[in-house]
Write a structure and sequence with these properties.
Elements lengths: L2 H5 L3 H13 L2 H18 L1 H4 L32 H37 L1 H15 L3 H11 L4 H27 L3 H8 L4 H9 L4 H24 L11 H7 L10 H28 L2
Helix pairs in contact: 3-5, 3-13, 5-6, 5-8, 5-10, 5-11, 5-13, 6-8, 7-8, 8-11, 9-10, 11-12, 11-13, 12-13
Length: about 290
């Protein structure tokens, strides 16, 4: 009988207790509420936005917040700042989660392989990972995107590739704590192959650190995506994307017009803070 089979009778009780502790966490509730708002903006932006984000009105240039029906004012083209912030969430909340899923998936495969097989495989891959981790993420992303097309799929692939070594290092450490336990030895004595032991036996028992790592990487992916958009990758001029808007509206700051830049910056900050709140709550529950 495997460890997974032994734990099965109490699996539902464990899940209930896990969610019960999460739902008692104010940190988790606040973080999820903010995330839910931005997800709503991605799926149904028309329900939240008050104006067409692309509509220009030269006569309404730089209207200050809370004036003329504009909650957060207008930009230099007379476009509603609040509506553009709502629509600007879409690109980031599509690219960042996709890149994080890719990076986490690759990292889990690498971490399981390194931690379980050990030996020369672990040594060689660990050295490669250390070399990749030592490189600045933004610099490598810029080099890759300059050489390749800077489309959405390319950005997802580049960010995912850069995050994979970080996830792999965390997963490897968790696997090293598991690989000598009795349930792993029992599977090996039954002559189970390495794939079965890694993905059927060990993986369910290291899921906690993987979930935490995923949420942490998601926050970094949001910042990385915004940073790339700020310097012109992944979005076109005039796009409501937060990073691109902050870049485009930096000119307005010279005229003492701060709200077109501040609103998307606060939106970006709120999303990252929400992700970190959820990550902290998950880590706190899993570590108990």
């Amino acid at each position: 009988m495997t460890a997974v089979e032994i734990q099965t009778p109490g699996a539902k009780a464990v899940r209930r207790e896990f969610w019960s502790q999460l739902l008692r966490s104010k940190t988790f509730i606040v973080g999820m509420a903010i995330l839910a708002f931005w997800v709503l903006c991605v799926v149904f932006p028309d329900l939240v936005a008050t104006h067409d984000p692309t509509a220009q009105d030269p006569l309404a240039k730089w209207v200050r917040p809370f004036n003329d029906g504009h909650l957060f004012g207008t930009d230099r083209f007379g476009r509603d700042v609040f509506s553009r912030a709502i629509y600007g969430a879409r690109e980031i909340l599509i690219v960042a989660p996709a890149a994080t899923v890719l990076g986490t998936g690759l990292g889990v495969i690498l971490g399981l392989t390194m931690g379980y097989l050990g030996g020369i495989v672990d040594d060689v891959v660990s050295r490669l990972i250390e070399a990749l981790i030592s490189l600045p993420v933004i610099l490598v992303a810029l080099l890759a995107l300059t050489s390749l097309s800077a489309g959405r799929l390319t950005i997802i692939g580049v960010i995912g590739f850069l995050f994979a070594p970080l996830v792999a290092r965390t997963v490897r450490a968790a696997v090293l704590e598991e690989r000598n336990l009795e349930y792993v030895r029992a599977a090996e004595l039954r002559s189970e192959n390495a794939f079965y032991v890694m993905f059927i036996e060990i993986l369910p028992n290291v899921f906690g650190p993987i979930i935490v790592e995923f949420t942490v990487r998601l926050g970094y992916a949001v910042f990385t995506m915004a940073g790339l958009a700020f310097i012109g990758f992944g979005s076109q001029p005039g796009s409501p994307d937060w990073g691109r808007t902050i870049f485009d509206e930096r000119i307005s700051l010279l005229s003492d017009v701060w709200w077109p830049s501040l609103v998307p910056a606060l939106a970006l900050a709120s999303l990252v803070v929400a992700i970190n709140l959820v990550a902290d709550a998950l880590e706190g529950v899993i570590d108990r």
